[in-house]
Please model this.
Amino acid sequence: MFYTLFTFLAWLLAAPFLLLASMARKYRKSLPARFFLIKNPPLKPAKIHFHVCSLGEAVAIKNLALKFNDFSVSVITATGFNAALKFCKNVRFLPFENFLPFWLKKSEILVIFEAELWLNLVRSAKKNGTFVVLLNARMSDRSFKRYKFFKFYYKKVFENIDLVLAQSDKDALRLEILGAENIKITGNIKSANFSKPTKNYAKFKERLIVIASTHEGEEELVLNNLEINQNDKIILAPRHPERFKKAGEILAKYAKKNALKFEKFSQNSDLKSECILLDTLGELVNFYAIADVVILCGSFVNNVGGHNPIEPAYFGAKIISGKYFYNQKALYGIVKNIEICEATEISKAIKKSRRSEILNISNLDEIKKIIEEKNGKSI
Model:
């Protein structure tokens, strides 16, 4: 009761500023929904309720959520909301703490992702008779110091969590110090976020270098700094279809300059040329499967934030990346041997690169089984 009163007073003080912030385009949807319940009714009844924060977490939870027949998703940010809508129709913004005791409805299981440790969320869920799971739990060095300072708060939070699925032994130990019980190590589920090949291409006799997910300015940047051998083949895959034409012109020019053959995948898929433009969606993962080197773009220009390294790492390709991968830090952190370099150092990075490897790989079927067994029901 005291905590809910405290959060209500905090909400009263912050309300004018929140209304002002709601005018910004970035928060126009999320803040009114979370702090004033505008167009944000309770979730429709579902057996399992997943709660995540933003875009990365919503994407990470997708493959696990789809293994259940009846689920809902709550989020914090607008980007998370839009990502969740792509695989679930029952999506809402999670309201601020003072609203949760009457907003949150009963589900059989509540799965909270990583660090969304809100006291009224877990406490209200337990009062509703819900089995509460903390999934993908982690505790970095920096976070652990901060969390220990508020240990009294997190002790109360963990009193209302039935099962903790931690990423590693180190995370489990730190969570136990904070009051967590019934902990199991299940790895990082973000490691399970990859697509499987839809076609099986034979491995080329040449060394295959895939320049993946390029953005404006990156084709020239990468190609101008790429030293290739006679036994090399290049596949260039622009990130967006509207750039296929321009990227193709750049690659064709590069091929002509270096006396190499050029072809577009969509027009001639015999794949005999040394330079191939991958201008068909859904094919990139098929070439990751046979790639020797992947130059992962969106990371050599400072306006994208990088792309997911899990897919090429799943196949053990050597991965070269620029330094601008700020939107993918969590995923980069679970892939071993990514070579980070400036564009001018690409060829040098390729020479010293090693096969990539995913750390803390999760088995989503096993996680589903653990959740159902601990809850005592199949969902």
